[in-house]
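Intended use. Records like the one below are meant for learning the mapping from a protein sequence to its folded structure. Do not use them to infer anything beyond what is encoded.
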Amino acid sequence: MSRPLRSRHSNGMVTAEAAAVLPLLSLVALALVWVVSLGVAQVRTVDAARDAARAVARGGDDRAAVAAARRTAGDSASVDIRHESGLVSVTVSVHASAPGWLLAPLPPVTITAESEVEDEDAGSNG
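Structure written out for the chain above:
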């Protein structure tokens, strides 16, 4: 018995479909890698805000706190330190843009974290 003609021709169809879908799957995988890297950047930004707020609250100067935040979040981080009514509030922002190897024009993302702690020096002076 001979094989039906239809099954011989459908083998090449599966290969063509796979060849068409694989680049799309690769692009989705690269985008997922970028999203994971944004998650890591968010964690680093939160840690940087916490470290800087703690450093200022313990009596360190603002320059040392900014250096601590940038050590954790990266040199391009923007650090804002505010002293208000016995609290130290630190906001750390990092701008992240899609890497060039992603091959898709994605908008840049700003990651921001804020941390507030009680100013130990303000409490001892009052």
